[in-house]
């Protein structure tokens, strides 16, 4: 994972200035000083008093440069080269290796070289056919039209480091319900005529190929748009082309008024996730009839995604939207990684069905449902406390709050509430524990024949642990001593008494 927080940190110390000035000079749009604040804007952060206290400021300039090079150039290159292959590895393993990574590796390494092995694997991937491209284009256009047409209140996102307040149409939940109803309606009425959504399962290699190709080019477009035609002042270059492509050059780009991240993350990515697990359920039903393990996994994922869309406006105040710019990481991630990796447990279960029996199925279902509830309640506690300015109850008591002051980049002072009770009093990122437990609950129905159905879980653990560090650094920079106060009160990052 690229340590962007660290990269930002190093840039703030001046190591990235040369590149930044060059970039600023070349596009002339960023309007930043030479102090290198542009990238920090991408981190959704602000000037803070806490920055001077960081231990790594004492590192030697050579070491800092090396870290900067690793974080901003080497890691992004490796990720950009590796992850588009990863989704194909998963497809290849499920379809050609009986779901076994071991068989997949044996096949790849049995060639003259690993490169030949990977090339051979890619040769099995079909280029997208007309039906697949038509379905994907129709789905993308449908999502855009619905974003505009469906009713919803206009809601304000959090104020950005440059002082902008993005506005969104809060119609995600209606969109989700309408889309699922359409999916099941079409599946029911068109099956007698020989049309089934399982074509998406059968031709998933084409789907991944098409999404990969489109997304890589789309990210290039976003990179250029951020440099030459940004939608807001929350944009600019770090001076490093690779990092800019990976991380993005705009915080919330809009194209013809459409919010790009709302489209890629929610309306395409998250909705696509829901539709794909439904496709897997249909395919599994066609092949084997009702299979309880598939049911448990699909049911939990759908409840989770329903919860996501119910809370979509709250998602606008999370790291993805406030911190991450629209680049390869978030946009390619939501357009390709979610369909390719996040849906892998049920993709695997189609060809490796397992009968769990009622007691086990019920156990996984109940544990998963509890995990969803805890995760949701944690997200809601934060939202409720901030929405009511602390005038609410958390677990039946007045919330414990820290009134944290911070500054925007333009020097304007603001105040925000940090909740230090409820789930946010257990650990600073306790809500990641139920998130991980849940992923386990929808993967474990595949039982333990292979690692593949746990790929998402493994990725999630890495992502969330890394995120605890990233977010702590971001908040320490933003809130300075107020964050330290919170850390004193709630000393653990994620797991009480452990981590
Ligand atoms: N399945 C997946 O792949 C993933 C799922 N998730 C889920 O997405 C949801 C959002 O998570 P995530 O994006 O990581 O962000 P969080 O919900 O953890 O939001 C982090 C932000 O919340 C604010 N904050 C931090 N501590 C407090 C506090 N004590 N009181 C009030 N506000 C606080 C800070 O922002 P501010 O600047 O406003 O103070 C901080 O930057 C979670 O449910 C998580 O489990 C997350 C990542 C991956
Ligand atoms: C390029 C890749 C190595 C990494 C791509 C990662 C992204 C696909 C994911 C990073 C963070 C993820 C999410 C954050 C928070 C979410 C809220 C939750 O309620 C639903 C899931 C999600 C939207 C989730 C989706 C994937 C990421 C954007």
UniProtKB/TrEMBL annotation:
Enzyme category, top tier: oxidoreductase
Record bears the keyword Iron-sulfur: no
Membrane-spanning intervals of the chain: 68-94, 132-151, 172-189, 209-228, 294-314, 326-342, 354-376, 454-469
Pathway: Steroid biosynthesis; cholesterol biosynthesis
Residue span of region Disordered: 19-41
Protein location: Endoplasmic reticulum membrane
EC number(s) given by UniProt: 1.3.1.21
Protein name: 7-dehydrocholesterol reductase
The UniProt record lists the keyword Manganese: no
GO biological process: brassinosteroid biosynthetic process; cholesterol biosynthetic process
UniProt similarity note: Belongs to the ERG4/ERG24 family.
GO terms under cellular component: endoplasmic reticulum membrane
One annotated GO molecular function: 7-dehydrocholesterol reductase activity
Catalytic activity, as annotated: cholesterol + NADP(+) = 7-dehydrocholesterol + NADPH + H(+); 7-dehydrodesmosterol + NADPH + H(+) = desmosterol + NADP(+)
Membrane-topology descriptor: Multi-pass membrane protein
Source taxon at top rank: Eukaryota
């Amino acid at each position: 994972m690229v340590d962007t927080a660290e990269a930002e940190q190093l840039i703030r110390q001046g190591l990235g200035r040369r590149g930044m000035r060059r970039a600023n000079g070349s596009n002339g749009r960023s309007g930043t000083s030479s102090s290198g604040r542009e990238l920090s804007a991408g981190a959704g952060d602000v000037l803070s008093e806490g920055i001077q206290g960081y231990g790594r400021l004492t590192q030697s300039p050579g070491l800092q440069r090396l870290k900067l090079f690793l974080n901003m150039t080497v890691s992004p290159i490796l990720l950009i080269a590796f992850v588009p292959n990863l989704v194909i590895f998963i497809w290849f393993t499920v379809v050609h290796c009986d779901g076994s990574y071991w068989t997949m590796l044996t096949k790849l390494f049995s060639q003259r070289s690993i490169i030949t092995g990977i090339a051979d694997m890619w040769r099995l991937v079909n280029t997208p056919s007309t039906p697949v491209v038509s379905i994907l284009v129709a789905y993308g256009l449908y999502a855009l039209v619905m974003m505009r047409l469906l009713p919803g209140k206009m809601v304000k996102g959090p104020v950005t480091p440059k002082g902008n307040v993005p506005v969104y149409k809060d119609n995600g939940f209606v969109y989700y319900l309408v889309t699922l109803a359409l999916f099941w309606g079409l599946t029911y009425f068109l099956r007698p005529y020989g049309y089934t959504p399982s074509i998406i399962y059968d031709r998933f290699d084409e789907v991944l190929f098409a999404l990969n190709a489109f997304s890589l080019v789309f990210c290039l477009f976003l990179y250029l748009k951020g440099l030459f035609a940004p939608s807001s002042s929350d944009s600019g270059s770090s001076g490093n082309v690779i990092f800019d492509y990976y991380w993005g050059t705009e915080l919330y780009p809009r194209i013809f008024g459409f919010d790009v991240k709302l489209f890629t993350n929610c309306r395409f990515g998250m909705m696509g996730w829901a539709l794909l697990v439904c496709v897997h359920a249909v395919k599994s039903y066609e092949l084997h009839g009702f299979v309880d393990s598939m049911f448990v996994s699909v049911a939990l994922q759908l409840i989770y995604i329903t919860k996501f869309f119910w809370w979509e406006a709250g998602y606008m105040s999370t790291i993805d939207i406030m911190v991450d710019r629209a680049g390869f990481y978030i946009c390619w991630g939501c357009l390709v990684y979610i369909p390719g990796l996040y849906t892998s447990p049920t993709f695997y279960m189609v060809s490796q069905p397992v009968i769990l029996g009622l007691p086990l199925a019920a156990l996984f279902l109940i544990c998963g449902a509890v995990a969803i509830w805890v995760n949701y309640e944690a997200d809601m506690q934060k939202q409720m406390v901030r929405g009511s300015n602390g005038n609410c109850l958390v677990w039946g008591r007045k919330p414990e709050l820290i009134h944290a002051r911070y500054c925007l980049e333009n020097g304007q002072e603001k105040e925000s509430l940090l909740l230090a009770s409820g789930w946010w009093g257990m650990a600073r990122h306790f809500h990641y524990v139920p998130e991980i437990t849940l992923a386990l609950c929808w993967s474990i129905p595949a039982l333990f024949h292979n690692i593949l159905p746990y790929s998402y879980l493994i990725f999630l653990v890495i992502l969330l642990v890394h995120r605890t560090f990233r977010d702590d650094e971001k908040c320490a920079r933003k809130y300075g001593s107020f964050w330290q106060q919170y850390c004193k009160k709630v000393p653990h990052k994620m797991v009480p008494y452990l981590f």
